[in-house]
Amino acid sequence: MTANKIIYVLDTNILLHEPFAFLSFKEHDVLVPMTVLEELDSIKDRHKDVSRDARVAIRALEDTLVNATPEQVLAGVKLPQNDDLHPSGCLSIFNDYALDESQVKLSFNENDNRIISSAIYLQAKNPDNKVVLVTKDINMRLKAKGAGLAFVEDYRTDQLIDDIKFLTKGYHQFPGDFWQQVHDCESETEGRNTTHYIKRDLLPNGYINEYLIDEGDHFAGKVTGFDDENLAITDLSRERLMAKQAWGIHPKNIYQGMAMDALLDPTIDLVILTGPAGCGKTLLALATALEQVIERGLYDKIIVTRSTPEIAESIGFLPGTEEEKMAPWLAAITDSLEVLHKQDENMNASLNYIIDKANIQFKSVNFMRGRSIQNTLVLLDECQNLTASQLKTIITRCGEGTKIVCSGNLAQIDSNYLTAVTSGLTYIVERFKNFPGSSNINLNGVVRSRLASFAEENL
């Protein structure tokens, strides 16, 4: 190892989170313990959502090391160069089974301990190098520190913000009256739409499709264009936003009004809805989907899916069709369908009729892989439990004429290796905020009931 280079030891969950993670460390060296390869091998054949990521990681490692001799694999193989300014580091496999148990401080009975021991051994053998264990497992980071490893980190290459409070909300709320803060404005009207051109200084970090509201309840608009000096803002009219309707549903607050505007906009291909439980994410997504498929005929069908960590392993063993297997995990959707049709005398018959008429299909997330989905409205729920890599895989399946709605609550993450700032949902909110074909709304406020609202704010 070259002096002053950092040696990064990767845990298995890093390669499951991002299969090409070993390419992200620029000029530094990356080491993969043999135990990590064994864990990837055991995962790749399971009926799990992460099995594909394990296979991709194994293939990527093999492609990098394919022409290397055993001696070169142990010593380190040059990684593809990132750019002209940074010489590339090396990738090597470390045989942790060759360690003498007297040299390590932890029992060799657990895989985590073997990986930690590898990092501690390398730390002792390379005093001139900083040795860093990279893992998304919080408990493993604590164990490594307790065992004497000086440097332990989370994988942050795909982390775009440091704190969830900095996450883009999809709208900007001005204090007081919006127009009192505008000193220079030109306007033009075409049909019912009025566009205002204001100085960019008023909102220097404004981005395309960002909604603008004020505390005075006087104004609602949306950024539809900008240059270095000006912002083009389409005046939406607060009254018109609140008067929108889809499948008999009207917005209960301005945040739902903005969400409904984005959901019903045929020029928007991706809508991201975030917010607490009970803010209306699923109900709005489903109501606008039915409106656009049945009433407006914009799409041929609706595909409903969600992240299901538990079901990924067991769905193949459950009896029935895929829709029947997914039913327990999509109760939020069926609950919303019941709310939308609670006035119907024969609700069960009505629900079945609507499901058939809208061609609603309940699918496992695995269904999305390897497909090109055309002219479809896709509702992807519980996105907070997906990684950036998994969401990329799903979104890239969307072909011509397809719209996808991604929703989730970043306060309810079930994954062992994700936090609010590393969730794939957070990642796509930040990555797509300047994409003209997307819109993001944080639904601020619980409207389910006063009980739900109190629980969200006080528990």
List keywords for this structure.
alpha/beta, Rossmann fold, 16 helices, 6-stranded mixed beta sheet, 2 domains
What does this protein look like?
The structure is a single chain. With 459 residues, the protein is of the alpha/beta class. The protein folds into two domains: 6-153, 5'-nuclease (Rossmann fold, 3-Layer(aba) Sandwich); 266-458, Rossmann fold (3-Layer(aba) Sandwich). It is 32% helix and 20% strand. It is built from 16 helices and 18 strands. The strands form three sheets. The protein has a six-stranded mixed sheet with strand order 3-4-2-1-5-6. Strand 10 and strand 11 (220-226) form a beta hairpin. The longest helix has 15 residues, at 51-65. The chain is elongated, with a radius of gyration of 25 Å. The N and C termini lie far apart (51 Å). The relative contact order is 0.11. The model is unreliable at 310-315 (pLDDT under 50).
At CATH level 2, the architecture of the largest domain is: 3-Layer(aba) Sandwich
CATH topology of the largest domain: Rossmann fold
Q: What is the quaternary state of this protein?
A: single chain
Order of strands, main sheet, comes to: 3-4-2-1-5-6
Shape: elongated
CATH H-level homologous superfamily name of the largest domain: P-loop containing nucleotide triphosphate hydrolases
Q: Helix amount, in percent?
A: 25-40%
- How large, in whole angstroms, is the Cα Rg? 25 Å
Q: What is the residue-averaged pLDDT?
A: 84
Q: Beta-strand level of the residues, as a percent range?
A: 15-25%
Number of domains in the coordinates?
A: 2
For the largest beta-sheet, the strand count, sense and barrel status come to: 6 strands, mixed
